[in-house]
Amino acid sequence: MKGDIEVAIIGGGAAGVAAGRHLHDAGIDCLIVEARNRLGGRAFTETHAGCPIDLGCGWLHSADKNEWTAIAKAQGRTIDETPPPWSRSSLGFRLNEQADYRHAFNEFEERVSKLAHADKDAAVADAMEPRGRWNGLIGAVVTFISGGEAAEVSALDYENYAYTDLNWRVVEGYGATIERHGEGVPVAFDSPVRSIDHSGKRLAIDTEKGTITADRAIVTLPTTVLVEMENLFKPALPAKIEAASNLPLGLDDKMFIALDKPEQFEKDSRLFGAKDDSKTAAYHIRPFGRPMIEGFFGGANARKLEAAGEGAFFDFAVSELTAILGNDFAKRLKPIHIHRWAADPFARGAYSYALPGKADCRAVLAAPVDDRLFFAGEACSKHDYSTAHGAYRTGIAAAKQVIAGRGN
Ligand SMILES: Cc1cc2nc3c(=O)[nH]c(=O)nc-3n(C[C@H](O)[C@H](O)[C@H](O)COP(=O)(O)OP(=O)(O)OC[C@H]3O[C@@H](n4cnc5c(N)ncnc54)[C@H](O)[C@@H]3O)c2cc1C
């Protein structure tokens, strides 16, 4: 491992890869210091029976404005523009009921918007209609969107999220695209950072593989990891850690399940496990037409299932699916893969949300310290948090700050 560099990038997820690519292409001596043996972080494509499956990010949200769309195309990848299952009707859900639910969800979001513009921020749960018929399902969808339970999520932060209605996918994998974008950028793999000493003239970054000295660093660690690593900064940066603790990573986990006789279902269709319970999962059936089901588990439900072990996700999915499709359906299902993101020591969750009253912490987290410690990662983004393109943008912004500050 090279021990003396100009810029260290701590963490090689979407933000770190974007920053590293930008700095390396600008001819700057930089090194991504990554705990894992791969780039991508929460962007992670694995291959099953020849099919790339995305265990982390899968959707190019705001695809028409998303920088990863152009990068994927430049890599020669295939972009699938099929509208996402959540924009179409769901199976086992009568059309008039679905229309009623959608109407209730839109009204809920309008109330969130009003709350966001009130003097004092509140939780999105406050925008639920008292005893509303669809509160359970709305609560579940909030966990899919934010990873947090509706009672914990800031209305202002929820409202700040910006998006276009186009959501596409990379057939060969979103994670694979991000990983490839880092090719050629110097990386120290398997090198978890233990501390960043910024007391001296140069930074001293202590890793499990030795110490690196650098003039500047871009820190891209997930917020929950930052909070867990109590002694990361020497001297301590309590304002940063407090900001990170107000932007915890919520939890969403995906489980891929093999489906026998898939033709019964339309490609890219969807089913909710229950329509009246915030602890239900959403099932994307035949993603890309493949003989699979992608189960999506959020919030407290995902935490409970993680605690019970990997098998609990499959058992839960089978119980929900057979309740709707009949007991024989269980014979057609086999578990493929689940990645438990909260149990993952280098992620500790899926994506960040702000606690009520704490949306401004995103700017606090993103602010540089002494013009030599810079911060990036999805949680630093005011409008694109929780996404891989948000992470990209913060990585580029930090790299530009580094370049602008050189020579000072
Ligand atoms: C199940 C799931 C579904 C998702 N779906 C979507 C989606 O459809 N679309 C979308 O846009 N986004 C989605 N996301 C979110 C998206 O994946 C993330 O927002 C984005 O990848 C975060 O990038 P990042 O660079 O900020 O953080 P990370 O990817 O977490 O990067 C941080 C890096 O730091 C490394 N690290 C951690 N600790 C240390 C240490 N001590 N020393 C050195 N390195 C360390 C990690 O290994 C990691 O590589 C999803 C995430 C999950 C989990």
How many distinct helices? 12
Main sheet summary: 8 strands, mixed
Small-molecule binders here are: flavin-adenine dinucleotide
What is the number of beta strands? 20
The average pLDDT is 97
Q: Specify the structural class.
A: alpha/beta
Regions with little confidence, pLDDT below 50 for 5+ residues: none
Which geometry do the CA atoms define?
globular
Strand content: 15-25%
Helix content: 25-40%
Helix and strand topology:
Elements: E1 4-10, H1 14-25, E2 30-33, E3 45-48, E4 51-54, E5 59-60, H2 67-74, E6 79-80, H3 95-116, H4 135-146, H5 155-160, E7 168-170, H6 174-181, E8 187-188, E9 193-197, E10 203-207, E11 210-219, H7 223-228, E12 233-234, H8 238-245, E13 249-250, E14 252-259, E15 269-272, E16 282-285, E17 292-298, H9 299-308, H10 310-325, E18 333-338, E19 351-352, H11 361-366, E20 373-375, H12 388-405
Would you write up a description of this structure?
By secondary structure, this protein is of the alpha/beta class. The protein is built from twelve helices and 20 strands. The chain has helices at residues 14-25, 67-74, 95-116, 135-146, 155-160, 174-181, 223-228, 238-245, 299-308, 310-325, 361-366, 388-405, and strands spanning 4-10, 30-33, 45-48, 51-54, 59-60, 79-80, 168-170, 187-188, 193-197, 203-207, 210-219, 233-234, 249-250, 252-259, 269-272, 282-285, 292-298, 333-338, 351-352, 373-375. The strands form five sheets. Strands 1, 2, 8, 9, 10, 11, 12 and 20 form an eight-stranded mixed β-sheet that branches. It has a five-stranded antiparallel β-sheet with strand order 15-16-17-14-18. β1, α1 (14-25) and β2 (30-33) form a beta-alpha-beta unit. α1 (14-25) packs parallel to α12 and α9 (299-308) crosses α10 (310-325). It is globular, with a radius of gyration of 21 Å. It starts with a strand and ends with a helix. It binds flavin-adenine dinucleotide. Residues 10-16, 33-36, 41-43, 56-59, 61, 192-193, 220-222, 225, 252-254, 341, 346-347, 350-351, 377-378, 386-389, 391 line the site of flavin-adenine dinucleotide.
